[in-house]
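can u do me a favor
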């Protein structure tokens, strides 16, 4: 089924709506990958919309016809965490779909926009730090699992994750 939504570039005006979406999505859907203690330690950090991403021009939202934001995701040339830049390597950032809207191609559609924009910007491969619950999603998009990693969150909590990669 294809639902009625459109994708546009996010702006700083979307900050509250994106934070609300991250909260709704991560608090429910990440529960299949993490125990409650791990999740509650990182949720306060990972459910805050990232102002730099909202300004980047390469972060997107999916809007339902009601104008409610029901999906988000994007990419950056900068590596999350340290801002390092490697030639031709883009990084997938903060994908989320509202639990009421999963399985309706929102994630795949946002990814397609990212891939096209990244190729135009000269990227030839993508990496992502996938949450444990999202490995199947990125695998469906053509990413290969490289290895398990621990990602340091803004509050110094470590989140078990999966480094994944694909050429674009
Ligand atoms: C991961 C997530 C963004 C997927 O969003 P979605 O809008 O439901 O994805 P889509 O409907 O576009 O699915 C695309 C493909 O991925 C597959 N897929 C989606 N979620 C999956 C999952 N959890 N496990 C396995 N496959 C999955 C779908 O079956 C579909 O495959 P197909 O196109 O071959 O039929 C969503 O589940 C989510 O927000 N999860 C919580 C947040 C999160 O962990 N984000 C990743 C942070 S790194």
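np, heres the sequence
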């Amino acid at each position: 089924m294809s639902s009625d939504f459109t994708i546009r570039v996010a702006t700083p005006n979307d900050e509250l709506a994106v934070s609300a979406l991250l909260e709704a999505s991560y608090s429910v859907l990440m529960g299949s990958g993490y125990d409650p203690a791990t999740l509650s330690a990182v949720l306060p950090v990972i459910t805050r919309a990232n102002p730099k991403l909202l300004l980047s021009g390469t972060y997107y939202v999916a809007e339902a016809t009601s104008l409610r934001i029901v999906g988000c995701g994007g990419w950056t040339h900068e590596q999350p965490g340290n801002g390092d830049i490697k030639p031709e390597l883009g990084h997938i950032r903060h994908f989320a779909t509202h639990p009421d809207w999963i399985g309706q191609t929102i994630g795949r559609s946002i990814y397609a926009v990212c891939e096209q924009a990244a190729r135009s910007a000269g990227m030839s491969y993508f990496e992502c730090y996938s949450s444990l619950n999202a490995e199947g999603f990125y695998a469906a998009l053509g990413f290969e699992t490289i290895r398990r990693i621990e990602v340091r969150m803004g509050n110094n909590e470590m989140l078990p994750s999966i480094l994944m990669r694909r050429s674009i």
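The chain has one domain: 5-127. hope that helps!!
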